[in-house]
Amino acid sequence: MKIQIEKEKLQAAYKNACGCVKDAFEKLFGEDVLETAKPTLDDYKTIKSYEDACDVLGLSPILSENRNKALCAQFPDHYDFRQNMPKHIIALMKLEIISRALWGKSFEPEPDAEGNKIYWYPWFALYTKDEVDRMSDEERKSLCGALFGGNAYNGAYAGFGYLRANYRSSFSYAHIVFRLCQETEEKAAYFGRQFIELWAEYLAYGFKVTEHLK
């Protein structure tokens, strides 16, 4: 029987494994297979987390991927704690840093009074539980979405998914900030899919991601 394992999932499992388990992984698959690409501004697809974005920008992560454990930044004269900051604001801060890293070395969106420049941003959709249940496996996979647990008022479930990359001219749609725009449709799509949980936390304040669609 042939078993196929996605390389990225294998690398993630290796990264989180303890010493003896890592030894077993190395014997089975070889160290070359298990090494992950180092994050770099030259290849946006190597940026897979908020910490990766901080790494390539030379920043110290001030907030953990674990939403329940906020870290603090050390300044010359004080520590800057952010435990009381709303989670959707924390998510936006992270997305802006990630967006800067995805721009790479030579791009930064700038307003153009004539509206000749086009920028791209990820576009999302909310789905009812019935709509999610009626989706085919291919539709679920293409959405790369997540299920939301309902809020305290209605207890309902909803689906949240990356829908497409949309574009905007440099003078329109002020509600889509330049800090979250990318220069290509492909890069905007990656921004939406790879960081779906952060987008969910930023755009759908009051909901909690319970599981990913499969």
Structural commentary:
This protein is an alpha+beta fold and 214 residues long. Among the domains are: 1-36, no CATH class; 108-212, no CATH class. Helix content is 38%, strand content 18%. The protein has helices spanning 7-16, 19-29, 31-34, 50-57, 87-103, 129-134, 137-143, 185-194, 196-203, and strands spanning 72-74, 79-81, 118-128, 146-149, 158-169, 208-212. It has a four-stranded antiparallel β-sheet with strand order 3-5-4-6. α4 crosses α5 and α5 crosses α9. It is globular and about 60 Å long. The model is unreliable at 64-70, 148-157 and 168-175 (pLDDT under 50).
Number of helices: 9
Which class do the helix and strand fractions yield? alpha+beta
Determine the fraction of residues in helical runs and give it as a percent range.
Answer: 25-40%
Mean pLDDT: 70
Sheet bearing the most strands, described?
4 strands, antiparallel
Strand content is 15-25%
Q: Unreliable segments (pLDDT under 50, ≥5 consecutive)?
A: 64-70, 148-157, 168-175
Distance between the termini: 24 Å
Which sequence of strands runs across the widest sheet? 3-5-4-6
Shape: globular
Helix and strand run: HHHHEEHEHHEEHHE
Number of E-state strands? 6
> Which value, in Å, is the CA radius of gyration?
19 Å
